[in-house]
Amino acid sequence: MIRAVATDVDGTITDDNSIIDIEAIEAIRKLEGRGIRVILCSGNALCILKALSRYIGCTGPTVAENGGVVEYRGKIRILGERGLGRKAIDHLRSVYGELIREAWSNPHRYVDAAIMRTIEYDKVVSEVRKFEGIKVIDSGFAYHILDKRVDKGVGLLEALRWAGISRDEVAGVGDSLTDAELLRAAGFRCVVANGDESIKKEADYVSRSEFGKGFAEIADAILSGKIGSP
């Protein structure tokens, strides 16, 4: 039985311009109305994600900064080491100067520091490798630099422990490689049609529709018992 849905945001409940699909919002309200808590899991800063969660109507924990930060009922847990991303960005700027453009939300982040995709990914990785314990992930919207010990799966499992929900009772929904660990941490793996082919191969359910409409399709499948029934 599904008690919670853990979903990525960008590219999963939004389009490729980060506009949230109305059908996805309606689907979240339907899930919540049936007692299925929705957990937003994103690379975004906690302040952004928590506000989105609150106004959409999600009652589950919030997993921010690619698993580096978890919030539930007003309490916050930091899972990764602070300051690693900041150190790497300062170095990148010393090498590439003004080509390095930071996300406006970085001052509000704890673990994950984000930069725009203004230079090649391989160049960023090459420089970040000079620092121990740091990794770079490409969300398709930005490059995220953070403690290599954390990911969305680590964050989700901590959120589930906090909320008293078993991983077998969770459906994970995503679209990109950054969601792979999130899906593996969930009992049921769902991917929207625009998702990366590699994570589709591991999915229990792939929607016919893309982006937010795909999420709405997955929500309907959960509510109708097509996903998660014994």
Task: Provide a concise account of the structure shown.
The protein has 230 residues and is an alpha/beta fold. The protein contains eight helices and eleven strands.
Shape: globular
Q: Please list the strands of the largest sheet in the order they lie side by side.
A: 5-4-3-2-1-9-10-11
What is the top-level CATH class of the largest domain?
Alpha Beta
Strand content: 15-25%
Helix and strand pattern: EHEHEEEHEHEEHEHEHEH
In terms of structural class, how would the helical and strand content be classed? Answer: alpha/beta
Separate helix tally: 8
Count of the domains? 2
CATH A-level architecture of the largest domain = 3-Layer(aba) Sandwich
**CATH homology superfamily name of the largest domain:** HAD superfamily/HAD-like
CATH topology of the largest domain: Rossmann fold
**Mean pLDDT across every amino acid position:** 96
Unreliable stretches (pLDDT < 50, length at least 5) are none
